[in-house]
């Protein structure tokens, strides 16, 4: 078994300038990925896109240079949402797609997400092969001789056509006032322009990326600026994206947050109403119990996967189902895409609102989320307090306190040096107290 030194739960991620997020490493990564992905091909193409981080162009050039040394041509498609890379990989019939992004992380982080020729995240088996190849390269210095050229190409218009193809041709958003928060990220041009084209009156915020403001106090990681603007403008709703456009959170006209669990419920209920729903639904270990209860009332089977959209996709495919989501806003709609696509998911909700002549708030009737709190505790890279006796003991006591009327989940993040503590239950006060008590013990054991 290959030791996974670089790949986490969603590609490779870290601080720019620190190994492995350096130009030097990305050249090596390009060589290793090229050697694995196009081992038996003489004419291989890889699609590369990036978000708005200032480090993106540097890493993109280094990665393309490394791929070139492996005899691979790259199509550099510029700033585009991660799901756009997934789609364009299939459209251009490329061997792979690579998004240079750290998703919802701060600007000084960056990383890569790999997609296979089918537009799905690379399997762990292939990631392990790239890890193994990287270890070989570290022992044998390569002669960096570029064998293939890489070229710039604009795939944005094609991606826009794809997004539009997922909704009815006659969808007209005229009369809808929508506030859109693009997190100074990859959706900053695409999302507002598309919604305006469909007739909506769009108030765009956090749409002026400067390389260092991506996800800074905006987007899905800080919903309050969007909420404030929706209420100030008396808008019909608000949509927040994360930095690379693969997750969304919404705000209704009264300022209520509508998360991935509620969005999933709205989509499922509408499909049932229109007799277009078959099978079941996949959530994750973080999905709110309120979603599970609401789906049960609809008679919809519900399964929880591990956290991460790759695991949702795996569970969907194993069961022959087509719809799943994380409460953080990753929505997977296999009828449209094998990647979580925030723009596409948002368009589906807007289509439902218009078709039913209703509001986002009304669509949320039928699902009552249980009080849930998530606390992140910062770690150094070596510590793992989850193994400590004190943390195990306090968790066990907390579960006894909830007495079956709630859940506790403690896990190390796969993308950041954090322990995530989630407590959920029927009584808000009890949930908050238990979460902060557990967090205190976790901090003492770091």
Describe the structure.
By secondary structure, this protein is of the alpha/beta class. It folds into three domains: 147 residues, Alpha-D-Glucose-1,6-Bisphosphate, subunit A, domain 3 (Alpha-D-Glucose-1,6-Bisphosphate, Chain A, domain 3), CATH 3.40.120; 198 residues, Alpha-D-Glucose-1,6-Bisphosphate, Chain A, domain 3; 73 residues, Alpha-D-phosphohexomutase, C-terminal domain (TATA-Binding Protein, 2-Layer Sandwich), CATH 3.30.310. The protein contains 14 helices and 18 strands. Strands 1-5-4-2-3-6 form a six-stranded mixed beta sheet, with helices on both faces. α1 crosses α2, α1 packs across α4 and α8 crosses α11. The model has no long low-confidence stretch (mean pLDDT 93).
Class derived from helix and strand content: alpha/beta
Strand content: 15-25%
Please identify, by name, the CATH architecture of the largest domain.
3-Layer(aba) Sandwich
| Helix fraction by DSSP (H/I, runs of at least 4) | 25-40%
Low-confidence stretches: none
Q: What can be said about the biggest beta sheet?
A: 6 strands, mixed
Protein name: Phosphoglucosamine mutase
Catalytic activity: alpha-D-glucosamine 1-phosphate = D-glucosamine 6-phosphate
InterPro entries: A-D-PHexomutase_a/b/a-I, A-D-PHexomutase_a/b/a-I/II/III, A-D-PHexomutase_a/b/a-II, A-D-PHexomutase_a/b/a-III, A-D-PHexomutase_C, A-D-PHexomutase_C_sf, A-D-PHexomutase_CS, Alpha-D-phosphohexomutase_SF
Domain Alpha-D-phosphohexomutase alpha/beta/alpha: 4-136, 158-255, 259-365
């Amino acid at each position: 078994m290959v030791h996974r030194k670089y790949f986490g739960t969603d590609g490779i991620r870290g601080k720019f300038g620190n190994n492995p997020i350096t130009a030097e490493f990305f050249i090596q990564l390009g060589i290793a990925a090229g050697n694995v992905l196009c081992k038996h091909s003489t004419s291989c193409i890889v699609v590369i896109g990036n978000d708005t981080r200032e480090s993106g162009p540097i890493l993109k050039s280094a990665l393309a240079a490394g791929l070139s040394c492996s005899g691979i041509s790259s199509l550099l498609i510029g700033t585009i949402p991660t799901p756009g890379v997934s789609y364009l990989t299939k459209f251009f019939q490329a061997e792979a797609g690579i998004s240079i992004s750290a998703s919802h992380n701060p600007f000084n982080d960056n990383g890569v997400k790999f997609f296979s020729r089918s537009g799905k995240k690379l399997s762990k088996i292939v990631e392990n092969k790239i890890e193994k190849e990287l270890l070989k390269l570290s022992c044998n210095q390569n002669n960096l001789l570029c064998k293939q050229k890489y070229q710039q190409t604009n795939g944005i218009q094609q991606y826009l056509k794809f997004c539009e193809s997922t909704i009815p041709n006659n969808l007209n958003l005229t009369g809808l006032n929508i506030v859109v928060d693009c997190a100074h990220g990859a959706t900053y041009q695409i999302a507002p322009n598309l919604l305006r084209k469909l007739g909506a009156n769009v108030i765009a915020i956090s749409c002026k990326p400067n390389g260092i403001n991506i996800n800074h106090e905006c987007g899905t990681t800080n919903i309050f600026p969007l909420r404030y603007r929706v209420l100030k403008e008396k808008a019909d709703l608000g949509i927040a994206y994360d930095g690379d456009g693969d997750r969304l959170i919404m705000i209704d006209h009264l300022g209520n947050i509508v998360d991935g669990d509620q969005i999933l419920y709205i989509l499922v209920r509408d499909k049932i109403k229109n007799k277009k729903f078959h099978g079941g639904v996949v959530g994750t270990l973080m999905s709110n119990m309120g979603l599970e209860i609401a789906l049960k009332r609809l008679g919809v089977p519900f399964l929880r996967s591990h956290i991460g959209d790759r695991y949702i996709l795996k569970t969907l495919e194993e069961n022959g189902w087509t719809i799943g989501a994380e409460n953080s806003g990753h929505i997977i709609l296999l009828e449209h895409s094998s990647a979580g696509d925030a723009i596409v998911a948002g368009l589906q909700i807007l289509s439902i609102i218009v078709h039913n002549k209703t509001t986002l708030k009304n669509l949320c009737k039928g699902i009552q989320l249980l009080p849930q709190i998530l606390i992140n505790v910062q770690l150094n890279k070596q510590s793992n307090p989850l193994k400590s006796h004190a943390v195990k003991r306090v968790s066990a006591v907390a579960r006894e306190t909830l007495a079956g009327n709630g859940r506790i989940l403690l896990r190390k993040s796969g993308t950041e040096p954090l322990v995530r503590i989630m407590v959920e239950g029927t009584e808000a006060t009890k949930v908050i107290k238990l979460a902060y008590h557990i967090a205190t013990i976790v901090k003492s054991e770091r």
